[in-house]
Amino acid sequence: MERAEPPAATFERRVLRSAAEHHYLRVRLELPDGGARPSVAQFKQLVVAALRELHGEVGAALPVDVLTYEEKTLSAILRVISSGLVKLWSALTLLGFYQNRRCAFRVLQTSPFLLALSGNSRELVLD
């Protein structure tokens, strides 16, 4: 009696991408030596300069919006098209100087949904 071999397994690769058009990032600029704090326009220019430095003119042309900016804490919420998220994140991470002073961008949160940045589950206090 012959044994029938099981049919060969077939695999299908499926890549699911987020359907969201934009991604949102909560970022903070750290200036260890204090000094002058950038205005919202200077902050936006710093983001564009970081993109230009790492990705050239193509990176500088990436549409990035500063939705909110707090000059007191140097934190902001940025909106970028989803296809440019990695470029923006890498450019901000590798930026090291602002007006010849050391600086660092910290990406605090990222999400395809703006509402997700409204709170931090790590700081949630339940009664």
Strand content: 25-35%
Q: What's the order of the H and E elements?
A: EHEEHEEE
Q: How far is the first residue's CA from the last residue's CA?
A: 71 Å
Which shape, going by the Cα principal axes? elongated
Rg (C-alpha, Å): 21 Å
Instruction: Please state the average pLDDT score.
Output: 88
> What is the helix content?
10-25%
Strand order in the largest sheet: 2-3-1-6
Low-confidence stretches: none
Sheet with the most strands, sense and barrel status: 4 strands, antiparallel
Please provide the count of β strands: 6
Helix/strand-derived category reads alpha+beta
Number of helices: 2
Note down, in words, how this protein is organized:
This protein has 127 residues and is an alpha+beta fold. 24% of the residues lie in helices and 28% in strands. It has 2 helices and 6 strands; from the N terminus they run E-H-E-E-H-E-E-E. The protein has helices spanning 40-60, 85-94, and strands at 22-30, 64-70, 75-81, 97-98, 101-102, 104-111. Strands 2-3-1-6 form a 4-stranded antiparallel beta sheet, covered by helices on one side. Helix 1 (40-60) crosses helix 2. The chain starts with 21 loop residues before the first strand and ends in a 16-residue tail after the last strand. The model has no long low-confidence stretch (mean pLDDT 88).
